[in-house]
Specification:
Elements: H1 14-24, E1 28-32, H2 36-49, E2 53-57, H3 59-65, H4 67-81, E3 85-92, H5 95-104, E4 108-111, H6 118-135, E5 140-144, E6 154-155, H7 166-176, E7 180-182, E8 191-192, H8 193-196, H9 206-216, E9 219-222, H10 230-239, E10 241-246, H11 248-264, H12 271-293
Parallel strand pairs: 1-2, 1-10, 2-3, 3-4, 4-5, 5-7, 6-8, 7-9, 9-10
Helix pairs in contact: 2-12, 5-6, 7-9, 9-10, 11-12
Length: 307
């Protein structure tokens, strides 16, 4: 199965883009989608900024969207826009789902057995890596270690706890053969209410990131990026982060803009008229994050309360 990102000219695969961004001191923005509205917003942001983007979909999001249907739409958008748009099967918790994504043509799979004991995480991740690379040798396989909680939702209290260590990272990479590593470095899935309101921000263990990067020697992914302090994003990229996941910020923008759109005209029943402002609101969040991850000047007002 040919991955979405390998249909273009040489030098433009996901691995190529990550390698180039690493030399430039930039990171690839990863944004989750569960419907066409969010996908349209991501593509619009990529077109606006002229920057590469990684579309993500968790098992639940893929079940709602359809793995093959999403892969087909991303491939179509990539060919239409002539921009480096890639697709990742985010937080995949079974071998069957990893194979489903690989066969559908995803460019990357996040294999997540991090809730299991370390040795079992290693064994099951290694099995999945070998299986998906048998389908497509160029697919990027990601593994996860440590504890950053679950669910891209608004939370009452912080989740996560056990941070990853450099030695654990080294052992995990060597034993599994992964291309990307997602460690726990102070990040957390979802956002606290205070973060949505702009009163609090996540802060990362920057020294730990640098140590893990040196020990692991592979691309590093930051999950649970929503609500992180902008300066910590910049410093995390400098320390070795290559991919940054943003999901809850998009969901908040989607929910708030949809509510405003419905309230603006309670009698409107045409879906595309209601949803156009939603696409624009999400696009603004994505564009702002993409610019930040590439070291460009960002207008804080572009992402509203979740900036």
């Amino acid at each position: 199965m040919t991955a979405i990102g390998t249909t273009k000219s040489a030098g433009n695969t996901l691995r190529d883009v990550l390698t180039r961004l690493q030399t430039e001191g930039a990171a690839l923005g990863h944004f989750n989608v569960s419907d066409q509205v969010l996908l349209k917003a991501l593509v619009a942001a990529a077109e606006e900024t002229k920057l590469p983007v990684l579309v993500g979909a968790s098992e639940g999001e893929r079940e709602f969207f359809g793995a093959r249907q999403l892969a087909a739409m991303v491939k179509s958008e990539r060919q239409e826009s002539d921009l480096p748009i890639f697709l990742n099967a985010d937080h995949t918790h079974s071998l069957a789902k990893a194979l489903e994504a690989a066969k559908a043509g995803f460019d990357a799979v996040t294999i997540d057995f991090s809730a299991l004991p370390f040795e079992e995480n290693v064994a099951r991740t290694k099995e999945a890596v070998q299986a998906i690379k048998a389908v497509n040798p160029s697919i990027l396989a990601e593994g996860e270690i440590g504890d950053i909680g679950t669910g891209s939702e608004i939370k009452e209290a912080a989740q996560g706890g056990r941070l990853s260590t450099p030695e654990e990272a080294r052992q995990f990479v060597e034993a599994t053969g992964i291309d990307n590593l997602a460690p726990a470095v102070g990040n957390m899935h979802g956002m606290l209410k205070s973060m949505v309101q702009g009163k609090a921000r996540k802060h990362l263990d920057l020294e730990r990131i640098a140590q893990i990067k040196q020990a692991a020697g592979v691309f590093l992914t930051l999950h649970g990026g929503s609500g992180t302090e902008d300066e910590h994003f910049r410093k995390a990229i400098a320390a070795g982060i290559n991919i940054i996941h943003i999901n809850t910020e998009l969901r908040v923008a989607w929910r708030e803009s949809l509510g405003e759109s419905l309230a603006r005209d309670p009698n409107e029943v045409v879906p595309y008229k209601i949803l156009r402002p939603v696409v624009d609101a999400v696009k603004q969040v994505v564009s702002s994050r993409l610019r930040l991850f590439h070291g460009q000047t960002v207008n804080p007002e572009m992402v509203g309360s979740v900036a």
